[in-house]
Amino acid sequence: MPQMDRHKNRTVYIEFIADESFNNLPYKERFTIIFITSGSMNLQLNDYPIKIVAPSILCLSMEDTIQVSEKQNVSSQSFCFHPDFINTAHFSESQGYMSTSLKIETGLSLFKKYNIHNGLYTVTEKSYPKLYEWFFVIGTEVYAQSDSFWVCRIKKYLIQILGLLEELSHHSEQSPVGLVLEYIHTNYSDKISLEDLTRCAHLNRVSLNKMFQDLCGCTAMGYLLSYRLKVAENLLTHTGMSLNEIARATGFEYDTYFIKQFTAKRGMTPTEFRNTSREFAYYQ
C-alpha cells in the first residue's frame, strides 16, 4: 500500500516489505529492488530460468513476469517505488506531485532486460555492509517517518543503492583498478586516503595512478573526487538536502570544501547548479 505522509498532506507511492515472499511480484506500476540476504532459489524470469544465490539483488520492472519453482531458506526484503517517485523534483501541498521531465537516470538501466542482462546482481563482500545499511534505513524510514524529511532521506539512499549497483555492474573485474573502483563506489561517503586505495590495489601510488590514468584519464584520487561530485549532483537535483548534509553524504568533511571543489569543477556553485537543473527540467 502507498504511504500516507503524516507530516505533509500527500501520498507517497513507495512500499517496503521486510519479508518478501515473491508471491505478488512484480508489483503493479512499480520498480522493485529485492535484496536476497540468505538462501537460494530457482525461478523463471520472463520465461528464462535463473538461479539466485545470496547475497544478491534482483531489480524488477512492472513489465517483468516471475514464477518461483524452488526456495531454500530464503530471507529477503524489497523496496518498490512508482516511477513518479524519482521523476518528480517538486511537491506542492495543493497540487501534489508536479510532473516535469526531470528524471534520475542513475540506475534505471538496472531494470531493463536485454540480451544476457536479467536484472540480477551479485553483492560482493565489500559492498554488502553498505547495501544492508542503506536498505535498513529505507525500511526504518518508511515505517517510522521520523520527521518531515523522511521522504528526502529515502530518495537519497535509493540514489546511493542504484548508483552502487550500476557501478559494480560496470566494473566487476578483479583487476587492481577494478578493486579500487569497487572500494570507491562503496565507501565514497567515508574518509578515504590514497594509502587506503593503494592497500586495496596492492600497488604503490605511482603504479596505481598510472593504471588509473590509462583507464579513466585521471588519478585515483581524482576519480574519487569526480565520483563524489557526480553523486552530489543527483542529490542536489532530486532532494531537498542541505549543502552540509550533501557534503557529509558524499565524503566531504566540510560543506565549505565541498562548495569550493564543486564550484571549481562545475563552474558554478552547488546552489546555482540546483536552481539551474530544476529550472531546465521545468521548462522542457
UniProtKB/TrEMBL annotation:
Domain HTH araC/xylS-type positions: 178-276
Keyword Transcription tagged: yes
Keywords on record: DNA-binding, Transcription, Transcription regulation
Pfam families found in the cross-reference section: HTH_18
Domain of life from the UniProt record: Bacteria
GO molecular function, one term: sequence-specific DNA binding
SUPFAM superfamilies listed in its UniProt record: Homeodomain-like (SSF46689)
Name assigned to this protein: Transcriptional regulator containing an amidase domain and an AraC-type DNA-binding HTH domain
Organism of this sequence: Clostridium pasteurianum BC1
